[in-house]
Specification:
The structure is a homodimer.
Chain A (H helix, E strand, L loop, with lengths): L46 E3 L17 E5 L7 H5 L10 E4 L4 E7 L9 E7 L11 E4 L10 E8 L2 E7 L7 E10 L3 E4 L8 E4 L14 H9 L2 E8 L2 E8 L7 H11 L10 H11 L9 E3 L18 H10 L3 E4 L1 H15 L3 E10 L8 E5 L14 E12 L10 E6 L12 E5 H5 L9 H9 L2 E6 L5 E7 L6 E5 L6 E3 L1 H4 L6 H12 L14 E4 L11 E9 L5 E12 L5 E8 L2 E4 L4 E8 L1 H4 L8 E10 L5 E9 L6 E4 L3 E2 L4 E8 L6 E10 L3 E11 L4 E8 L5 E11 L2 E13 L1
Parallel strand pairs in A: 3-11, 14-15, 17-21, 34-40
Antiparallel strand pairs in A: 1-10, 2-4, 4-8, 5-6, 5-9, 7-8, 9-10, 9-11, 12-13, 16-18, 16-23, 18-19, 19-20, 21-22, 23-24, 25-26, 26-30, 27-28, 27-29, 27-31, 31-32, 33-35, 35-38, 36-37, 36-39, 39-40
């Protein structure tokens, strides 16, 4: 017996690890690996003998009913795609929606005799099909054999049988293989695998049994069938638009969406549940954790990818991800939301992109946003570390919530933008909009976090020398100032703030905030007295490069003279509210007579801000100050979004399907300096796939015109969308409306 | 102007990625990086001038009050550690609990005069301390300066001031730096950074204001202060014990627990919230996603690490993880639960390990466990892909749940074992035990999942030839058969099944199941008629290597003769219920007279199963069959856990603190074959750190004795725990109780 003494304490154990730990198999843990890819498949056998030979042995099974042909009736103009609202998908395969009957035609070797012949149409998805998991579904033409999917013979003539098949309204969404099995007394005989008989089954907002049922045809048209999107940005009092081509019907997009779920290793069996699908997708749309679709970048340096402001639609992004199998560079919030929207509409889940102006962000769902002033009322930038996003975009998707008490179905917030500080939570939602509105933030998923995004307090603290802080002003209405989405059926905007919040100052609002506090949403308790002096900053529409004047109004509401020692600072900020650089600082002392108003003019020269601008060209003005007579603090903040020059997009003439048309994009560099490394991108739902053109330099004052030919694929109203992007100038947009006739 | 034509569709965009996408900074996204490491620190400046020079300029600040010395009163026998229940931590630093006063002594250059002198004790945690985030806390000795932490002077003599400090009961848990700042008219002067003044602040189950308050001294003693653990395994009718040294007070363990949170990049500001801490830790204890502490392995091959059955405690694992900064190999469920328990108790969150017998696992929280029989009632192993874990261990931790409606505080389930199929969820909980019991599974986190672990159905299907299945038996009571934890204060077990479930068949139980169904927990609806024949398998206690007889009782409850065509199969299974290999198969036909019972004896020979055994030596017997006369199906299942040989652990004599003692471990190889590559491990709470010894070979029938000297560190009842492990024989345990006197 060998006997070898071991080293003693403190940490004798395990063998020194070299390299990463060995990959662990599922042996001993699970009987079969979990099927988590829709592209993995298993062929099911062509023959299954029952092992009960007759007196003469087993006869060739072809003696019985035999299949000559199967017609999936998958052409866009055939009834399946028309009835299932899938005619717009650019795909050769049959695409149908669950809970609704579709037809296939089966040609036998002889007329089918229901009294004697037995056959089943079998559907299979994933690598380990199981009847009890809903991944292997046999459908019989007769009522007596039950299955969760229904089958019936709708027509018979000669050797041809037309069979109507209704997938269960909660079946798995994805790509199925189809077989036809003939049952004989001696065994089962199947058709060979034939990929042209693969079919896609999608969510179905048109049937009441589906969890995503949406009982409004116009909403369905908008939130499932519409490729043309408008996403709002800018400021709540100066709203700007981005046009976006969701492109959910473009060739390859549906496969890319299924690939996203495969890449996430989401079990196949979960893919019929819109709660699980949307939650998983909110994680997979960003590249954190699982090499998801989009890499976030807010730095202004987009050297190794496409600037977030430059994209015109989702198609490029999704096709690139599915082909290169690598995260795509780069995204900011609206890119995440737009691509997520494509994913949702493509799979059949009603969805829309919403924009929340002044969105509390990167916090824990119970923190206040703090602005620190020094004892003189001047902002202390070193200690002010929070920011409020000028706007933030997320998605809403429509579904029932059987996992929650009654009343919380309907629109649900999902958000694919990675939230930096939210406890490692790189996914968000689905959170019921109803639950958010009513302060019922105890329900999954992440309702408390979204509640804070629209309901936080902005607290101004005055910091004493020895380090303590005192709240001097609490702004309870700044955050979640307005929430917008595109109107149904139009090109206008719709204010849906009232779906998230009761009107300010109402009894309901107070109740909701109290309810939310019960669930741990901490709000600022102190209520510092309001100053009797107000400062008002004007709303301005300014173009990039303009010199302009800021006219501050100081209003004295008291019966005494007031003297304000004011600090006016102007800075360039990212749309995340993070300060890039300061370009203006004034410290006027303003004397105001009782009940009077004094205007203070501040001249802003473009030469001071132009060199500092970051991509979305936001100027942030903060005025703070102390009333000499009372010691009260006054504060006001304003974001001014500078307007960029525009692209002029012009289309030649009235359009017809399949006839050539011409579009021109024109741009004039309005600056005295040259623009270098310029990309112009263009696409249009149903009329043009993404195209781009590169210009090495556009000298100051010069113009360019880019002309392209395109051939519309379908009728209707649509748009051509163009963007121009270069490091010195981002977010230059243009579009043209086009109506295509048959 | 350069003008270069671009390639057209379909995917012109982004530049081909080479390698992983560039690492994105927080520039533009956040003003400062989120502090997410407790080991990152920032020195705060020694001098902060107010910039208000007097007429003679700024005098040296040392002219004012000056600090000569600070005494943290950190010895184990000083009042701080005694009052804060932290005297057992093997650490030189002060360790206190939040919401409770501790004392420090400050020696000044002259007597402190509260009328004239101003100073603050400052606490700082993480890399970007901020007052409003609770990461920078100044504490003043006078009431007038408010802070969330309280300070007061409790004693004064000569130049020495004793100050009592009460951290907020919701403050961040972790390691703080301490400074003392003297405020002068010209600026602030601070003590230099001195790491011996660092202190740890923990959760505090002893104060009512803390979210983890537990109002029962005996429970606190057990669930926070006890290092000695017993974890149950085996079968519900033949319970076995594992002893475990949680070792939460051992040197380095507290730092290792903080390192786990640092490694997870959990924001410092979240670390005061037990909900967030436990949720994050449930993810970090396993190595999925984030290179957490333990690598799971259920395969039986543990070549590159330590077999899960071989560990004797958590100390080795945690110290190895914190020093090598690599996941430790290997764990199964009880190892995850045991190390998680150490983490929780070490940080001061009351916790216990529980064992659930017959745990539904690796499913989605709404799936049934299916067993498929063929038309003759014989089990179809190829199609039976689900397994029920013989047992599963998780943790409960105690806390309020302000994020949920009233009534769901108290014990919460957290589970660190990675759940393979649960939608990529490699964390679980905290889920309220009360919510689980009442079917209120709509509340976070993962209550529905845990509900299914204790409440699923086992459904036996009969599969028809053409592929359809029919449920023939539903067992609604198999899953969650019994839930055990160690009793408070003793070495016995406590059945806590009634905390998870109402008694079987009660009205409350039915209501709960209906409630859970409302929230999407799908149960089997069909109710196949019960057969009038029962089969009963006996409870047996068998040792490894024994031949034995299985006595099956077939009971005919009808007034007619019954004939059973039975299938009896015996297989070796992992504790996960996954079949490793079959070793027995019989197909008797049993005839039973009306209202009679027939016994069928099945001889099981050790030679048939010994070569197939996997580590936990579980034999699984399934008897199925068809009643010839009625076509009814009968089924019964039984797990028999073979008993292993034991280690004999003997301690020399009565023990005293700091006096040498001797322990011997004896083992006799009961088999005829040799055991190779044998590790014996031993440790004991408060008396011995982990030790191990290696034996190359123990020949059949031979014995060994390992003798060690140890020196007890503290008084009380404890145990020495030993394990023996080799590839051919695992899970050999022994222990000895020891009482140490002062």
């Amino acid at each position: 017996m060998s006997d070898q003494d071991a080293t003693p304490n403190p940490s004798p154990a395990p063998p020194a690890p070299t390299g990463p730990p060995p990959k662990v198999t599922s042996r001993g843990r699970t009987a079969v690996p979990v099927a988590s890819s829709n592209s993995d498949t298993t062929d099911i056998p062509e023959f299954e003998f029952f092992g009960v030979a007759g007196p003469r042995g087993i006869p060739p099974l072809t003696e019985f009913l035999d299949i000559f042909d199967v017609d999936m009736m998958r052409k866009p103009d055939e009834s399946n795609k028309m009835h299932h609202h899938t005619m717009l998908y650019n795909s050769d395969h049959l695409i149908v929606r669950r809970g609704q009957e579709f037809q296939i035609k089966i040609t036998f070797n002889r007329p089918y005799d229901s009294a004697q012949d037995k056959f089943a149409v079998e559907f299979v998805i994933g690598s380990s099909p199981q009847y009890s998991k809903g991944t292997y579904i046999p459908v019989f033409p007769t009522k007596e054999r039950q299955s969760s999917w229904e089958g019936r013979i709708t027509d018979k003539s000669d050797n041809v049988v037309t069979m109507g098949i209704t997938p269960a309204a909660n079946c798995i969404v994805g790509k199925y293989q189809m077989y036809i099995a003939v049952v004989t007394p001696f065994g089962i005989r199947r058709t060979k695998r034939d990929n042209s008989r693969n079919l896609y089954i999608l969510f179905n907002p048109w049937v009441a049994e589906d969890a995503v049922f949406l009982d409004d045809e116009q909403e369905r048209e908008e939130c499932v069938m519409t490729e043309m999107g408008i996403i709002y940005h800018g400021a709540h009092d100066d709203v700007s638009e981005r046009n976006w081509n969701y492109g959910q019907f473009n060739y390859g997009v549906l496969d890319a969406c299924l690939y996203i779920m495969d890449r996430s290793e989401m079990p196949i069996t979960n893919r019929g549940d819109p709660i699980k699908v949307t939650r998983k997708a909110s994680a997979m749309l960003n590249s954190h954790d699982e090499d998801g679709v989009l890499v976030g970048n807010w730095s202004g340096d987009y050297t190794y990818g496409v600037a977030p402001t430059s994209w015109t639609g989702s198609t490029d992004i999704l096709l690139s991800y599915a082909s290169a199998k690598m995260p795509v560079c780069y995204a900011q919030c609206w890119v995440y939301a737009a691509v997520f929207n494509t994913f949702l509409r493509c799979l059949g889940i009603p969805s829309r992109v919403v924009t929340n102006y002044f969105s509390a962000h990167d916090n824990n769902g119970n923190l206040k946003t703090d602005i620190i002033l020094d004892e003189n009322g001047r902002i202390d930038r070193d200690r002010t570390k929070d920011s409020v996003w000028n706007y933030h975009c997320w998605n809403e998707c429509y579904m029932t919530r059987p996992d929650l008490p009654t009343g919380f179905g309907g629109w649900q917030v999902v958000d694919a933008t990675p939230q930096e500080t939210s406890d490692g939570m790189y996914r968000c939602g689905p959170a019921s909009v109803q639950a958010i509105k009513h302060g019922q933030i105890c329900f999954p998923f992440d309702a408390a976090f979204v509640f804070a995004e629209v309901n936080s307090d902005v607290v101004f603290y005055s910091r004493r020398k020895e380090g303590t802080m005192e709240p001097v002003k609490v702004n309870r209405t700044h955050i979640g100032r307005m929430i917008l989405t595109k109107a149904v059926g139009g090109m206008t905007r719709r204010d849906i703030t009232d779906q998230y919040k009761f009107s300010e100052g109402s009894t309901e609002e107070r109740t909701v905030l109290e309810k939310a506090e019960e669930y741990g949403c901490k709000r600022e308790k102190s209520d510092p007295p309001l100053a009797d002096v107000d400062v008002v900053l004007p709303t301005l529409e300014i173009s990039v490069g303009d010199d302009f004047e800021l006219s501050l109004e100081f209003i004295n509401r008291s019966d005494q003279q007031r003297t304000i020692e004011a600090y006016i600072s102007g800075s360039v900020v990212y749309y995340t509210g993070v300060t890039s650089s300061d370009f203006l600082f004034r410290t006027p002392t303003v004397k105001i007579d009782p009940n009077k108003t004094v205007k203070e003019l501040v001249a802003v020269q473009s030469k001071n801000y132009m060199n500092h601008l970051v991509e979305q060209a936001n100027l942030h003005f903060i005025v703070t100050g102390k009333v000499k007579e009372t010691g009260q603090i006054v504060t006001v903040m304003k974001v001014i979004t500078l307007h960029n020059p525009k692209l002029i997009v012009e289309v030649s003439s009235e359009g017809k399907v399949n006839e050539e048309m011409i579009v021109s994009v024109q741009f004039t560099n309005p600056f005295t300096f040259s623009l270098e490394g310029v990309y112009i991108r263009m696409e249009g739902p149903g009329i043009m796939l993404p195209k781009y053109k590169y210009y090495g330099m556009i000298t100051g004052g010069s113009s360019l015109t880019w002309t392209e030919v395109f051939i519309p694929q379908r009728t209707g109203s649509t748009r051509l969308i163009a963007t121009l992007d270069c490091p010195a100038l981002r977010q230059v947009y243009g579009q043209a409306s086009v109506t295509i006739k048959p």
